[in-house]
Specification:
Number of helices: 7
Strand content: 25-35%
Number of strands: 16
Order of helices and strands: EEEEEHEEEEHHEEHEEHEEEHH
Largest sheet: 11 strands, mixed
């Protein structure tokens, strides 16, 4: 087995090809680790066994939900079960590097063979390598499924058809600089116990002579449900906009894996900087909304339905820590900052695009002139064809 190399005061273990000793990287398409030199392919289990990174103990199972009857969303102190979270990386600790961005403060983790040359969040070209320090070891990871070129192709498709997009923006957007990064998430398990009352109506109409008579009947619908939930995701990165990450969902958690550093070669990983306590509010809102939506969906056969009252309490279960795959592209245009994200599993793209002022002004005057020349339905059809 290849020897570890000395770095600072700690031993760093490089993953090397079991056949030729070359560098390895994780391949999203096959789900295997492949050699960059001889193209040998290895299963994650093979690498873990060879380098001793596979845990021998069974993964800890979530404990029974606690604190039954606690009122959800009332701001009380959390009692989530976090006993499964640990800072013990074992032998994996020697295989990790840590980089700090002096510009935005991001702390990036990566496997020792992956060099961070710039910050994925602010594109600052200077990142400072520091000693890997204690941080929570993830419980789970969703591996990258899309290769870098596939993510670039998704971005190109995203730009197409945007008539107000500045031409040079798409041409000079440095797509090759897109970076694959595992974004940290807290995952919440528990049970939402919901009680809701809905006011509903049905209406019937008939004519009596010249009068139309409408009869409206009012009902009160009561719904109760116990809804278990698992792996409700809340991103744990302050640098990653919440709305951006919410828009990237859903991720397919059927492909969730137990965490292994063997998935990291070639990618970066963000270190969480939003605590569990600071994430509980968002988790509560997501659980409450899902519970209420399910209760509401059971009220059918009425013309109108409005919420009269609700009482949703939360039995708090276990919190897990995990990483989800995202490609990031940071770029500037006209002194504005733009951040694009591609779901590294599904290929979904989100981000805001700049607007060409010249094209926008031209579009306004064109619509104005067309309205003067043609007016009415004709201009509506022309505008819809050319500008929408």
């Amino acid at each position: 087995m290849p020897k570890g190399i000395q770095f600072g005061t700690m031993d760093i273990q490089n993953y090397k090809c079991l056949a030729c000793g070359g560098g390895l990287r994780f391949d999203p398409a096959s789900g295997k680790v492949i050699c960059e030199y001889c193209d040998s392919k290895f299963d994650i289990e093979q690498i873990e066994k060879e380098y001793g990174t596979q845990e021998t103990s069974e993964p800890e199972k979530p404990e029974e939900a606690a604190d039954a009857g606690d009122a959800a969303f009332d701001g009380q102190e959390s009692n989530w079960n976090t006993e499964n979270l640990t800072e013990d990386w074992g032998e994996d600790a020697g295989n990790m590097r840590e980089y700090n961005c002096p510009s935005c403060g991001a702390v990036i983790l990566c496997e020792s063979t992956t060099a961070a040359t710039s910050c994925p969040y602010c594109d600052n070209p200077t990142v400072i390598e520091t000693q890997f320090s204690g941080t929570l070891r993830p419980d789970y990871i969703v591996p990258f499924k899309l290769k870098k070129q596939q993510a670039i192709d998704k971005l190109k498709e995203f730009y197409q058809g945007k008539k107000l997009l500045p031409k040079l923006f798409a041409e000079e957007n440095h797509l090759q600089e897109i970076k694959g990064i595992y974004v940290p998430f807290w995952f919440f398990d528990g049970v939402a116990r919901g009680h809701a009352v809905f006011n509903t109506t049905t209406s019937t109409s008939h004519y009596s002579g010249d009068y139309k008579i409408t009869t409206t009947r009012h009902f009160e619908c009561v719904r109760d449900a116990d809804i278990p939930f698992a792996m409700v995701p809340v991103d744990a990165s302050e640098k990653m906009p919440d709305d951006l990450m919410d828009s990237l969902e859903p991720f397919n958690f059927d492909e969730l894996k137990e965490f292994s550093t063997a998935y990291l070669p070639g990618y970066l990983a963000d270190k969480y900087d939003v605590s569990i306590d600071d994430s509980i509010g968002r988790a509560n809102v997501r659980c409450c909304k899902t519970c209420l939506d399910i209760l509401r969906s059971s009220v059918t056969g009425y013309d109108t339905c409005s919420l009269a009252s609700k009482n949703i309490v939360l039995e708090k279960g276990t919190v897990h820590y995990g990483l989800l795959p995202v490609y990031l592209l940071y770029t500037k245009w006209d002194e504005q900052r733009f951040l694009f994200a591609v779901n590294g599993q599904t290929g979904k793209v989100v981000g805001n695009l700049p607007v060409s002022k010249g094209k926008a002004v031209g579009r306004f005057f064109m619509k104005f002139l067309l309205s003067l020349l043609f007016g009415g339905p004709i201009v509506a059809c022309i505008v819809a064809y050319f500008f929408n």
